[in-house]
Amino acid sequence: MKSIAGVFGFGALLGAALTISVANTPAVAADGKDTIEKRIALMKNGVLKNYLYAKKFVKDGEGTAEGVVKHAKLLSEASKDVVALFPKGTGRGEFDDKTTRALPKIWEDWTGFKAVADTMTRESAILAEVAAGGDKEAIVAQFGKMAKASCGGCHKPFRGAKVK
Ligand code: HEC
Question: In this structure, which topology does domain 31-158 adopt according to CATH?
């Protein structure tokens, strides 16, 4: 025979389960949004700034080859943090197009995505080595190779169009 307490007990359990699932949804979404903001900040500060130093040296002759060594190393370091900032469930589809430009293809082709991040680590480390040699032409060539293979190599397949 079921006791009153047993029935209440079940009700309380069910209630608790409902509370947990309701409370969890916004928490996960907030975490995701936080991660999206972090990776965009990494792209802007850790990646773009160091990339631009090298680009200005290559295109406008600003800065020094030693500066390129330093910034290419920072770029290579920053690239190692990229993959961890793309957990599943933080792309377009889960978040609106204004919040993120990360395409679902990232998680459909996770191996490919990780490979481009590795390419960036490698090619920017090579850029640092080449820049240490001080040969401008070689720096220009390696910069072009790195940018095409990493920035372009990832943005083209894995980043969607910007929306206002
Ligand atoms: C492994 C993939 C990958 C590589 C390599 C990569 N990016 Fe990105 N980048 C992305 C993705 C995906 C986003 C969109 C992130 C989001 O909106 O959540 C992004 C966003 C950015 C942003 C933020 C602003 C915007 O318009 O989305 C900048 C700036 C940027 N990348 C610059 C660069 C530069 C410069 C390089 C090369 C030196 C580079 N990225 C290499 C994947 C990559």
Answer: Four Helix Bundle (Hemerythrin (Met), subunit A) (1.20.120)
Question: Which residue out of 155, 158, 162, 164 has the highest number of ligand 1 atoms within 8 Å of its CB and is therefore the one to mutate?
Answer: 155
Ligand 1 binding pocket, CB closer than 6 Å: 36, 39-40, 43-44, 47-48, 51, 82, 100-102, 113, 116-117, 120, 150-151, 154-155, 158-159, 162
Domain boundaries, the chain: 31-158
**How far does residue 135's CA lie from ligand 1's centre (Å)?**
28
d(CA 112, CA 123): 16
pLDDT at 163 over 70: yes
Confidence at 24, pLDDT banded by 50, 70, 90:
very low
In 3D space, the residue among 46, 45, 63 whose CA is nearest the CA of residue 54 turns out to be 63
Q: What pTM value is reported for the model?
A: 0.86
In sequence order, the β-bridge partners of residue 95 are: 92
What does the pLDDT look like over 80-92, one tens digit per residue?
999 999 999 999 9
State the distance from the centre of ligand 1 to the C-alpha of 110, rounded, in angstroms.
16
- Mean pLDDT within 46-71: 98
In whole angstroms, give the CA distance from residue 77 to residue 46.
8
